[in-house]
């Protein structure tokens, strides 16, 4: 069982060709559905039939009920806190063929309660793994819930992985603070931009190696260039990306994390885990939206 802790929000996906026409009209295709880094990772885990529980918070509104129903229909076990009087978080995702920009209202995600997170993890099955999206740690309103997840997992003796989440809020929170929060975790996952914030260096391997001072294993994702896995024993592994036509990059990193974690938590080697992550990441960029 993998317990994923973090955001569940509504994604408003705006797919446009060419530059945005500032102050005027830009033609686009717009879709509304479920999003949130943690929820997306949970959805991809369920897609490959890996047992998963999502710990998150939504508002007491139609959007929140829809988001939970979508995940439960997809096979995700929900441990979702409902926050009365608060709207479910939402994200406008502006996406083109090679990049995406997110405009975020975290809503109820900021109210995720430490006691709720602690209760779920303390009652988790023996041998469960906890995967924490970095977003709860990167915002003051939800930080205590993120820290509670790490503390509860440590008390239970459960393995923990953390996704660094996003470069801009990571920079605002501060690299030193973030690394102090996640110190000792079994696995830290970040992309190239996040690695530049946490450990500025010349290569992904150098950055991953430096970050093993804080986490036992570190994976730096490099998009089409693959990914690098470094362990505290000094070993370095490089995984290849699967070359596929890019339709939408939204959720690719979340899918990669799901494939990686499912393999690694099932006893696969780091090399096999990187390959599984690449396979699921390739599936994600081949479809519109962040979910299977």
Fold and architecture overview:
The chain has 292 residues and is an alpha/beta fold. The chain has a single domain (2-8, 36-88, 106-285), classed as UDP-N-acetylmuramoyl-L-alanine:D-glutamate ligase (3-Layer(aba) Sandwich). Helices cover 39% and strands 26% of the residues. It contains 11 helices and 13 strands. It has helices spanning 37-47, 62-74, 114-122, 135-138, 140-156, 167-173, 175-181, 192-198, 204-211, 252-265, 270-285, and strands at 2-5, 9-16, 28-35, 52-59, 77-83, 90-95, 100-105, 129-133, 159-163, 187-191, 217-221, 227-231, 236-239. The protein has a 9-stranded mixed sheet, sandwiched between helices. A hairpin with a 4-residue loop joins strand 6 and strand 7 (100-105). Helix 6 packs parallel to helix 8 (192-198). The mean pLDDT is 94.
Tally of alpha and pi helices = 11
Largest sheet: 9 strands, mixed
Topology order in helix (H) and strand (E) letters: EEEHEHEEEHEHHEHHEHHEEEHH
Arithmetic mean of pLDDT: 94
The named CATH superfamily: Ribokinase
DSSP helix fraction: 25-40%
Corresponding CATH architecture: 3-Layer(aba) Sandwich
Query: How many domain regions?
Result: 1
Cα-atom Rg, whole angstroms? Answer: 18 Å
Spatial strand arrangement across the major sheet: 5-4-1-8-9-10-11-12-13
What structural class is derived from the secondary structure elements? alpha/beta
Number of DSSP-assigned strands:
13
- Quick one: CATH class? Alpha Beta
CATH topology title: UDP-N-acetylmuramoyl-L-alanine:D-glutamate ligase
Distance, first to last CA: 20 Å
Strand content: 25-35%
